[in-house]
Amino acid sequence: MDDVAAAQLGVVPGPYRDFPMPVVIEEHTRAWLATPAQERAVPEPRPSATVMLLRDGSAGVEVFVLRRASSMAFAPGMVAFPGGGVDPRDADPDVPWAGPSPAQWAERLGTPESVARELVIAAAREVFEECGVLLAGPSAGQVVADLTDPSWEVERQRLLARETSFGELLTGLGLVLRSDLLAARAHWRTPVCEPRRYDTRFFAARLPEGQRAAHLTTEADRVHWAVPTELLAAQRQGTEILLPPTQVMVEELAEVADLDTWLASGPARVQVVQPWPVEHDGALWMRCPLVQED
Q1: Which band of pLDDT confidence, cut at 50, 70 and 90, is reported for residue 36?
Q2: What is the C-alpha separation between 24 and 32, in angstroms, rounded?
Q3: Does residue 229 surpass a pLDDT of 60?
Q4: Of 171, 226, 236, 246, which one is least surrounded by beta carbons within 10 A?
Q5: Which ranges constitute the DSSP H helices of the chain?
């Protein structure tokens, strides 16, 4: 491999871990690798945020997951967490805010303050848009507990239609974003061989008491609360497909003994992981550097 190709792929010294490459992305990955390094298209990754919504279940921690619709251009048919790309509306500096400040989030996320604000707002907005969970309350010590009134769905639809921003929604309802309900857990960047790339921060949040997560997004054909060990077993059996970031997060959740302790024990600063494709044993794999937590 020449220096140009290595730089494109983001190859780093070990330690690393290899993951089988999902069949749905194997064909275009082989085509990309067959292209001379100087001619390869490397799309700029789009900033995005995803949220592992969690609760205590009878068998331990449960995580809310969705299976992306087969019609989706990115990761079709794969298990994912609620989330999506940062929207221009997320840059609003006047969003009512409680909890760690954007400056404190910038330190945790390793970004400028303005980018950190956008990522936290995007995380809260996406989880409300996709599953109807609102990480906000009337004060820094309260959270909305009942979203069953039809007026909440009206507000959600206005947000989806871009008739209002998340900040305007909160201001109009006299609420503040509870950034303290989110915990930063990881930072993954889509490999350069993918035609659609995302620079994604993974957040975690406990489902607020009294709220319910629902199937509200057209991007998924199924949603459910999953026990991490059962989800990993389904992947081994071939009935579910997880991309490496999702698998690593679910594996971590499978080891959680106490949810509140885990939420409070995240890394001081998340480090980026960018896999790259490799071939061995006649198959393609995604090679992921192992992160050493601060």
Answers
A1: very high
A2: 14
A3: yes
A4: 236
A5: 3-9, 23-34, 102-109, 113-131, 150-160, 166-173, 228-237, 244-254, 259-263
Starting at the edge strand found earlier in the chain, the sheet holding 276-280 runs: 16-20, 283-289, 276-280
> What ranges in 111-258 are assigned the alpha helix state H?
113-131, 150-160, 166-173, 228-237, 244-254
Closest CA to 199 of 266, 126, 110: 110
Distance CA 94, CA 7 (A): 39
**Read out DSSP for 77-99?**
T-EE-SEEE--GGGG-TT--EES
Taking the C-alpha atoms of residue 214 and residue 223, their distance in angstroms, rounded to an integer, is 8
Q: How many residues does the chain have?
A: 294
Structure token pair of residue 99: 């909890």
- Cβ within 8 Å of residue 213, ≥6 positions away: 53, 64, 131, 132, 133, 207, 223, 225
- Scored b (16 or more CB within 10 A) or e, 264-286 reads eebbeebeebbbbbbeeeeebbb
Domain definitions of the chain by residue range: 14-289
Residues 6+ apart with CB under 8 A from 149: none
* Residues sharing a CB contact under 8 Å with residue 260, sequence separation 6 or more, in sequence order: 206
Q: What's the pLDDT at 216?
A: 65
Q: Which fold has domain 14-289?
A: Nucleoside Triphosphate Pyrophosphohydrolase (3.90.79)
DSSP percent split of the chain into helix, strand, coil, nearest 5: 35, 25, 40
Q: Does position 292 have pLDDT exceeding 70, yes or no?
A: no
